[in-house]
Design goal:
- The longest helix has 18 residues.
- By secondary structure, the protein is α/β, with parallel strands linked by helices.
- 40% of the residues lie in helices and 15% in strands.
- A ten-stranded mixed β-sheet has the order 1-9-17-16-15-14-13-12-10-11, with helices on both faces. The chain has a seven-stranded parallel β-sheet with strand order 4-3-2-5-6-7-8, with helices on both faces.
- The protein starts with a strand and ends with a helix.
- It folds into two domains: 214 residues, Rossmann fold; 252 residues, UDP-N-acetylmuramoyl-L-alanine:D-glutamate ligase (3-Layer(aba) Sandwich), CATH 3.40.1190.
- The chain binds ligand NPW and potassium ion.
- The site of ligand NPW has 24 residues, from helix 1, helix 2 and helix 3.
- Homotetramer.
- This is ADP-dependent (S)-NAD(P)H-hydrate dehydratase.
- One of its GO terms (molecular function) is ADP-dependent NAD(P)H-hydrate dehydratase activity.
- InterPro entries: CARKD (IPR000631), Nnr (IPR030677), Ribokinase-like (IPR029056), YjeF_N_dom (IPR004443), YjeF_N_dom_sf (IPR036652).
């Protein structure tokens, strides 16, 4: 699991560390790790070449000290001070004394495409979002040249705490210090960061109180495998969980069928299709193991494909009265402001639905997904899965938001949300807490989409078992 801290937290942890370390020690750790990474990527020192772009702050300092180490090891190094007259003085002196050659802007640009690697040490966590002027020219020339770029802490131009792809460098690798940054896991910014190496520079998160908690936890496949409920020799359909589905309608019968596909192929114990009669018939025809008679239900999936069902509010209230976990999707979300919810209830809006729930514009949600998902979770008291290119899960009153394993854009199609509801419903029925059910469900869909050719949602669901076999091995 990749933990992400905010700039505010990193600055606080940095202050705490400065107080108990020698001057320059943190930068030494950072630049040592950067130099090691560069050496690994260069492969050897003999005859290899490096262009260091150094900005006015400590990010430039890291780059310069790493350049000094490599120059000292025989790498041919050129160095350019991006803001003339404003450069980390000790780093500059060390780098040039070790043999690096200073070049001006045109010199730096002409070296691109001819050196083995470029070090982007222009701006780090102190950078203003969006490069302009000389910084932008350098970033564009570097990208055009095709020479691999190692960004120091983050690609210069990105806002560390944000998801936006501001004009910035495009890195093949980002060597980042103390903690991953939000821009390295949130799209579209993340795709500008390349491979992420997180370097432990000895920050003590526990020493800074509440600020020490990460703002994001980026889940990885192994985390999903560790939480996935695996049946044992004592399992039966009830211990694996019964999902009740009231989704779909005469207008949208497919939504109910797709929810059942998701639950069935994620390995639920039993599905009861208890919505509109035509949905139950269509579901039974597609999946013969589905039961259409009422009975014990351990978690509900409601709302997908309801359309403008006139009794939706009453039906939702009845289901909430049963006091089992409930996933509320799509048209069911319209009734959320009228009911009382708790963290075991899972809301699964996309950005447009979240915007409607919070009475803001979709653009506002897309600009600040983290702020809005926190607001919704706290306001309604329920767990929220925000669906989209990055899938976030917030638990009410908790600072840390979970981010599902990312997947390709192929799942952006009608019906994907319905099968996802089914997967999450099966995990709720198996007893996973709502946040874990949401992040594991979204991750299973993403991992499957990444491994398969483009498939419609019901066919993708049929491949869930292959992904699970790969994740869980012999368990
Ligand atoms: N955290 C840690 O524990 C450790 C952190 N370390 C390293 O320190 C880095 C943070 O260093 P930092 O605070 O000096 O900020 P950094 O990003 O280098 O630049 C700030 C300067 O740039 C300027 N400036 C900004 N944007 C601009 C623009 N668009 N165009 C023009 N100017 C612009 C800005 O100007 P101002 O805001 O003052 O107007 C200011 O002068 C961090 O990312 C990591 O690499 C490690 O050494 C080890 C431990
Ligand atoms: K940088």
């Amino acid at each position: 699991m990749l933990l992400v801290h905010s700039v505010e937290s990193i600055r606080a942890a940095e202050e705490e560390a400065f107080a108990r370390t020698e001057a320059g020690e943190l930068m030494e750790r950072a630049s040592d790790a950067l130099a090691t990474s560069l050496l690994r990527d260069l492969g050897h020192t003999d005859g290899t070449t490096l262009l260091v772009l150094a900005g006015p702050g400590n990010n430039g300092g890291d780059a310069l000290w790493a350049g000094a180490r490599l120059a000292g090891r025989g790498v041919r190094v050129w160095v350019h001070a991006v803001v003339p007259g404003r450069v980390h003085p000790a780093g500059w002196a060390a780098c040039t004394e070790a043999g690096a050659t200073s070049v001006d802007l045109e010199g730096a640009i002409s070296l691109m495409g001819r050196v083995d690697r470029i070090v982007d040490g222009v701006f780090g966590i102190g950078g203003h979002p969006g490069l302009t002027g000389e910084g932008l020219r350098l970033a564009e020339a570097a990208e055009r040249s095709g020479t691999p770029v190692t960004s120091v802490d983050l690609p210069s131009g990105l806002a560390a705490d944000g998801a936006a792809a501001h004009p910035s460098f495009r890195a093949e690798r980002t060597v980042t210090f103390g903690s991953a940054k939000a821009c390295q896991v949130l799209q579209p910014a993340a795709e500008r960061c390349g491979e992420i190496d997180v370097v432990d520079i000895g920050l003590h998160w526990e020493a800074i109180g509440e600020l020490g908690a990460p703002i994001l936890r980026q889940w990885e496949a192994a985390d999903v495998a560790a939480r996935w409920p695996v049946p044992t020799c004592r399992s039966d359909k009830y211990s694996r969980g019964v999902v009740g589905v009231d989704a779909g309608s005469a207008t949208y019968p497919g939504a109910g069928v797709l929810v059942a596909y998701g639950a069935a192929y994620a390995g639920t114990g039993m599905i009861r299709s208890l919505g509109a009669a035509e949905v139950a018939r269509a579901t039974l025809a597609a999946i013969p193991s589905v039961v259409t008679a009422p009975g014990r239900v351990q978690a509900w999936v409601v709302g997908s494909g309801w359309g403008d069902r006139h009794d939706g509010a009453i039906r939702l209230a009845e289901i909430l009265d049963q006091e089992v976990p409930v996933l509320i999707d799509a048209d069911g979300l319209r009734h959320v402001p009228d009911v009382t919810l708790s963290p075991e209830h899972l809301l699964t809006p996309h950005a447009g639905e979240l915007a409607r729930l919070l009475q803001v514009s979709r653009a506002e949600v897309e600009e600040d997904p983290l702020g809005h998902i926190h607001r919704a979770a706290d306001l309604f008291g329920a767990t929220v899965l925000l669906k989209g290119a990055t899938q976030y899960v917030a638990t009410p009153w908790e600072r840390t938001v979970d981010v599902a394993v990312p997947g390709p854009g192929w799942t952006a199609q009608a019906g994907s949300g319905d099968t996802l509801s089914g997967v999450c419903g099966s995990l709720l029925a198996a007893g996973l807490p709502a946040a874990e059910a949401a992040v594991c469900g979204a991750s299973l869909q993403a991992l499957t989409a990444a491994a398969e050719p483009p498939l419609p949602p019901h066919a993708l669901a049929q491949r869930f078992g292959v992904t699970l076999r790969g994740l869980l091995g012999d368990r």
